[in-house]
Amino acid sequence: MDMPRNVFKQLLQQQRLQIGLFVGLANAYSMEILATAGFDWLLIDGEHAPNNPATVLSQLQAAAAYPVQLAVRPVNHDAALIKQYLDIGAQTLLVPMVETAAEATALVRAVRYPPQGIRGVAASVVRAAHWGGIKDYARRANEEICLIVQIESRQGLANLDAIMTVEGVDAAFIGPADLAASMGYLGESGHAEVIVATEAALTRIAATGKAAGVFVTDPLLARHYRNCGASFIAVGGDTSLLRNAALKLASSFRER
Description:
The protein is of the alpha/beta class.
């Protein structure tokens, strides 16, 4: 059995535009619907959504038959939890609130097998290795793992250049909501100063040759961020899509 190739990582390295969606409903059935919707990538959110390794596993399985690329966001930097997500088959992790090069270095070690890292080895019992069915999985896994660090604070911005020099960090993703809060503009991710800071960060990331990403729901601003260097863009979330569509439908019939 062949080693699964991480197409998302390959496209990030080429800095090709990829449009994605955050997935927070924690449901395999809705995940399969989204996997057929035409997005390039979907992020299974374990930070703010009620996901855990079991629910993430079911969603990875639900989307496996489709060409959409998947990423998983753990709730924190815990190496044991990261190991579980990798073992159930996640190849791309987007890790929140990375603020220093030391944190980035620790995350690189968490996603890699020794001697480059500390990920525990159990290829015969994990889905990622097809329970021992993938020849030399442990020797080849490191090269297919993609680590994206999320920059979403003043401290993260201050240390951005150092973070991007860490070998093993494949990309950086700007989180405007938390960044706005860190800058003193809670609930104002569209504030002019937040936009300027995001522009500068995307340009700095792309200049390193690594991929830059951002969450933005406004199409015009998304195009602008693309011009600033963003190559993978999350344009919304499944919960918002469901709620907004439901409100619109209910309202349309009441008006009639």
